[in-house]
Amino acid sequence: MADINIRKTIAEKSCALGTFLSISTVPAVEALSFSGLDFVIIDTEHGPYDTETMADLVSAAAKGGMAPIVRVADVTHREIQRPADAGARGIIVPCLRTVDEFRKAAELAKFPPIGNRGFIKARGSGFGQEPWASGSLREYMDASNERLLLLPQCETKEALENIEEIAAIPGIDGIFIGPFDLSIAMGIPGEFGAPEFLEAVERIKRACRKAGKLCTTFAGNASDAKREMESGMDAVAVSMDSAVFSEAYCSLVKRIRG
């Protein structure tokens, strides 16, 4: 598997650019690898992926030079362990509310002394044959902790209210802002220009910067993605494969039929 370092990408480009996958197959991911995207998010929360499909997409993305990130459904051992073992470079955990839930995510995603992730040298480490995985057990755990970014989402009122404490939790590498669900939770669905929503985003950014963590988000289109990149976000996921696919064919049919 290609040795992709998202932190290095962000350092080199100021902001990494990716997209969500909800319907992709391995050939589709291979085709995306020629697009210039830095990462893809395999969405097992809303997408139809089982474990084997998710693992194959992780491998295809890495081989194509894109960092594979997996959004899981919830904060459980099974949900976090499987993408971690498969070689995901990042894990996004949605719908968290309490500080304890965020702490649990860190405990499951990271090896000691940060967390208590279950040990195995699986597919993501070349079954222990990757150069970075060939050292001592301590070196392997430290390298795994560094390579796997934990990016839980801030998309609930409870998470927003405690974001400073959450961002400072050891093992959390950054926060992924879920703008749609966060705006819904705030009672202003889709009002991304509302002063209270903009202040919420700035509060999350400040918390991440103070804790030395990454701040990432979703954008629905190219202009929004560009604005988020210029605003100081470390990574932006723009649109998703199903939306781009649908819009492209709608545009194609419209051009043909006039």
Task: Characterise the protein shown here.
The chain has 258 residues and is an alpha/beta fold. It has a single domain (6-257), classed as Phosphoenolpyruvate-binding domains (TIM Barrel, Alpha-Beta Barrel). The protein contains twelve helices and nine strands. The chain has a nine-stranded parallel sheet with strand order 5-4-3-2-1-9-8-7-6. Helix 2 packs parallel to helix 3 (51-63). The longest helix is centred in the last third of the chain and has 17 residues, at 195-211. The protein is globular, with a radius of gyration of 18 Å.
Give a quick set of tags describing it.
258 residues; alpha/beta; TIM Barrel; nine-stranded parallel β-sheet; 12 helices; globular
Compose a concise summary of this entry:
The chain has 258 residues and is α/β, with parallel strands linked by helices.
Structural class: alpha/beta
CATH homologous superfamily identity: Phosphoenolpyruvate-binding domains
Strand percentage = 15-25%
Tally of discrete structural domains: 1
Q: What's the arrangement of strands in the largest beta sheet?
A: 5-4-3-2-1-9-8-7-6
Task: State the name of the first-level CATH class.
Answer: Alpha Beta
Number of helices: 12
End-to-end distance, in Å? 46 Å
Which parts are unreliable, with pLDDT below 50 for 5 consecutive residues or more? Answer: none
CATH architecture assignment = Alpha-Beta Barrel
Biggest pleated sheet = 9 strands, parallel
Walk me through the topology.
Blueprint: H1 6-13, E1 16-21, H2 26-32, E2 39-43, H3 51-63, E3 67-71, H4 77-86, E4 90-92, H5 99-109, H6 137-147, E5 149-150, E6 153-154, H7 157-161, H8 163-167, E7 174-177, H9 179-185, H10 195-211, E8 214-219, H11 222-230, E9 235-240, H12 241-257
Parallel strand pairs: 1-2, 1-9, 2-3, 3-4, 4-5, 6-7, 7-8, 8-9
Helix pairs in contact: 2-3
